[in-house]
Write a sequence for this structure.
C-alpha cells in the first residue's frame, strides 16, 4: 500500500515539476523568433529568403510626376533595398521598423512611388521599402520583415530582424525601380 | 389647491429647460476651447492642427486640411472615428467624415502627417448651404467618438470636444 501511495505521489510531483519548468520557458527562444542576417545580410525563412542590400536615410524623397519638387518630412525617410525570393508559395512582404522603445513604423505606400510588390514563386524581386521614422527613434532600431501568403494571412514568427545602422543624408533619396527576374 | 402648485412647478421646470438650451438639437453646441489655425490641439491619441478648409459645391462637401500626429505605439491607417466635427454657420453639425492621409498610406507614431477629412452634406443629412465663394465654419477636434446627439447637448458627459478652430472654407472647382 505504501509503495502504491509513493508511486502516485511521485507521479504528481513529476507533473508539477514539468509544469513549472514549461511555464518558465517562453514559447519560443529569441533566436527562433527573430532571425538575424548572415554575413551576406541574408535571412533564410521558411517562407523565403530575404536579403538586405542597402539602407539609407534622408529628410526628402526625390519626386517624380506626382511631386516634382520632392516629398519632405519633419521626421526621416528610411529606405531599405531588399531582394526577396519565395520558397514555396506566393509571398506578400509585411515589414516595419521597430524602434528600441517598441514603436512600430509600417512600410509606407507613397503616392507616385513603386508599391511593395507581391512576389510569386519562381521570381526574385528587388524592391525598395520606404519608412518614415523620427530621427531620434533610429538608434537601436530594427527592420522587421515577415512573410504572409497571398491570402494576407500573416506568418507571425519567425521574422527577419535586421539592425538599422544608418546616417541621415543631407540630400534627397531616389527610389529605384522594382526589379522582377527569374529566381536562380 | 395642490394641483395648482403641481402645474406651476411643471411649467417652471419646462421654462427652465427651454431657457438653458431646450431639448436635444436646440441646445448650444459644446465645442471646447478656441484655438488658432495651425495651433496644436492635443487629445489622448492624436495631436491635431487645423490648416484650413475648402468646399466643393459640385460634390456637396467641405474638406478640412489637418496635420495629425499619431501618439500611439503603432502606425495607424485611420484617424479615430468622428474625431473631427464641422459646424456650419447656421450651427448645424456635420460629424460623419472620411479622413485619409494626403500622400502617405498610414500615420506613423510621432510623425506629423498631412491629412484631409471630407464632410458630405448628404451623408450628414444637412441641407447644402447657399452657393458662395467662402463660408465660415468651426472645426471641432474631439477626444473620442462624437455623435450627433452628443454634440447638441450643452455639456457632454466626458467633455469630449477638446477645442475648435474657426476657418473660412474657400470654394474650389474639382478637376474632372
Amino acid at each position: 500500500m505504501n509503495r502504491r501511495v509513493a508511486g502516485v505521489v511521485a507521479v504528481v510531483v513529476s507533473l508539477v515539476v514539468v509544469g513549472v519548468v514549461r511555464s518558465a520557458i517562453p514559447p519560443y527562444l529569441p533566436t527562433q523568433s527573430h532571425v538575424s542576417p548572415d554575413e551576406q545580410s541574408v535571412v533564410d525563412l521558411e517562407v523565403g529568403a530575404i536579403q538586405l542590400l542597402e539602407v539609407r536615410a534622408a529628410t526628402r524623397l526625390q519626386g517624380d510626376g506626382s511631386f516634382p519638387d520632392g516629398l519632405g518630412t519633419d521626421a526621416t525617410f528610411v529606405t531599405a533595398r531588399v531582394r526577396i525570393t519565395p520558397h514555396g508559395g506566393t509571398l506578400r512582404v509585411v515589414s516595419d521598423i521597430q524602434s528600441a522603445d517598441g514603436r512600430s513604423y509600417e512600410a509606407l505606400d507613397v503616392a507616385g512611388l513603386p508599391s511593395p510588390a507581391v512576389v510569386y514563386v519562381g521570381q526574385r524581386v528587388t524592391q525598395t521599402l520606404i519608412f518614415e521614422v523620427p530621427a531620434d527613434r533610429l538608434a537601436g532600431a530594427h527592420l522587421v520583415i515577415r512573410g504572409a501568403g497571398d491570402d494576407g494571412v500573416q506568418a507571425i514568427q519567425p521574422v527577419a530582424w535586421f539592425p538599422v545602422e544608418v546616417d541621415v543624408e543631407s540630400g534627397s533619396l531616389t527610389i529605384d525601380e522594382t526589379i522582377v527576374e527569374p529566381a536562380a | 389647491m395642490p394641483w395648482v402648485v403641481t402645474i406651476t412647478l411643471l411649467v417652471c421646470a419646462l421654462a427652465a429647460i427651454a431657457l438653458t438650451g431646450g431639448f436635444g438639437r436646440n441646445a448650444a453646441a459644446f465645442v471646447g476651447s478656441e484655438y488658432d489655425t495651425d495651433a496644436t490641439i492635443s487629445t489622448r491619441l492624436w495631436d491635431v492642427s487645423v490648416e484650413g478648409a475648402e468646399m466643393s459645391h459640385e460634390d456637396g462637401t467641405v474638406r478640412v486640411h489637418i496635420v495629425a500626429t499619431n501618439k500611439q505605439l503603432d502606425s495607424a491607417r485611420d484617424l479615430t472615428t468622428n474625431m473631427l466635427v464641422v459646424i456650419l454657420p447656421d450651427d448645424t453639425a456635420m460629424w460623419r467624415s472620411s479622413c485619409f492621409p494626403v500622400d502617405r498610406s498610414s500615420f506613423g507614431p510621432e510623425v506629423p502627417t498631412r491629412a484631409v477629412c471630407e464632410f458630405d452634406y448628404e451623408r450628414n443629412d444637412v441641407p447644402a448651404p447657399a452657393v458662395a465663394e467662402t463660408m465660415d465654419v468651426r472645426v471641432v477636434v474631439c477626444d473620442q467618438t462624437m455623435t450627433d446627439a452628443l454634440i447638441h447637448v450643452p455639456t457632454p458627459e466626458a467633455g469630449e470636444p477638446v477645442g475648435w478652430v474657426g476657418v473660412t472654407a474657400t470654394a474650389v472647382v474639382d478637376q474632372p
